[in-house]
User: Which sequence fits this backbone?
């Protein structure tokens, strides 16, 4: 078999460089290109040396870990023991994920007449898997592995950031309470123009049983002032929450002025899971009802006004909702 050492060097240089750049992205580090190139060159030289010279123990486990440690040090610096260990661990996680992706995708794309075609059993019962890949296929599967890993890690990071903004929320009206998760949105600046009361947004479906029949669905298409006018005409008896209903004007994304149906609760409690702090009690707030779904993934069902996060904590409230 003919081996082109220069091709081995260049392939490993590219692979190590991409792995190091992905590691930097995961760790949110911005190393210089010179440092990344130096570390990738070290890894490529290490891979190419096996075809130039036979050195005992040069490719042992300890030697591989040592070379990897030097590569991480060259790329990202030291920065303290904890920082260095995290960078080192992230480097190996990226390496394992991408290499596993390359092998998995190559076997997925490979066709064979029999699943036993790529397997060989040794005399002592060992199993040998034959794995051959052309350079073009290797490049494609490697880049696909990097792309998949980057996408998964970015999604995980965004989910963690979102979880930090999600509050456990409890709404109290008379003797009833409703518990759901709400997103703290710093861009929500909706107020009642007359009283300057902050307005949080909630899915109307949460109050389907407490609103008049069909309101939670009709709010998707019909203006709320029409619903209230029908309530006054058709109701045989006063609606229980009639004195709590409000109409809040707001400006839609397209610039048009609209009205939002809102309800005045007794108060709203905001909990943060596991932070050990008492909940915040918000007495001055309106709850605007949205006829749609606020989160396609169901992560939250309401949007908290930023002013609500400035409320004072309560010293004694009922037990935290489950």
Assistant:
């Amino acid at each position: 078999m003919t081996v082109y050492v220069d091709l081995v060097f260049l392939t490993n240089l590219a692979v190590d460089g991409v792995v190091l750049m992905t590691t930097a992205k995961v760790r949110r580090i911005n190393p210089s290109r010179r440092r990344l190139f130096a570390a990738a060159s070290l890894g490529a030289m290490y891979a190419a040396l096996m075809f130039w010279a036979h050195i005992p123990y040069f490719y042992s486990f300890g030697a591989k870990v040592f070379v990897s440690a030097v590569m991480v040090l060259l790329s990202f610096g030291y920065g303290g023991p904890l920082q260095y260990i995290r960078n080192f661990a992230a480097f190996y996680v990226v390496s394992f994920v991408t290499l596993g992706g390359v092998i998995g995708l190559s076997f997925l794309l490979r066709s064979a007449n029999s699943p036993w075609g790529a397997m060989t059993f040794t005399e002592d019962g060992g199993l040998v898997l034959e794995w051959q890949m052309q350079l073009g296929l290797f490049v494609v599967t490697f880049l696909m592995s990097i792309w998949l890993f980057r996408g998964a890690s970015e999604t995980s990071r965004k989910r963690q950031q979102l979880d930090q903004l999600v509050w456990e929320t409890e709404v109290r009206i008379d003797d009833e309470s409703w518990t759901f998760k709400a997103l703290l949105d710093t861009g929500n600046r909706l107020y009642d123009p007359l009283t300057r009361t902050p307005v949080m947004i909630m899915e109307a479906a949460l109050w389907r049983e407490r609103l008049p029949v069909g309101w939670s669905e009709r709010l998707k298409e019909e203006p709320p002032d029409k619903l209230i006018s029908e309530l006054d005409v058709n109701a045989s008896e006063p609606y229980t929450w009639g004195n709590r209903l409000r109409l809040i004007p707001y400006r839609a994304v397209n610039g048009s002025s609209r009205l939002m149906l809102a309800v005045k609760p007794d108060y709203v409690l905001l909990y943060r899971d596991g932070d050990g702090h008492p909940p915040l009690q918000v007495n001055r707030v309106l709850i605007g009802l949205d006829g749609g779904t606020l989160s396609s993934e169901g992560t939250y069902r309401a949007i908290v006004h930023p002013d609500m996060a400035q409320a004072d904590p309560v010293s004694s409230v009922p037990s935290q909702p489950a």
Notes: The chain has two domains: 5-133, 164-310. Residues 135-165 form the longest helix (31 residues). Residues 316-322 have pLDDT under 50 and may be disordered.
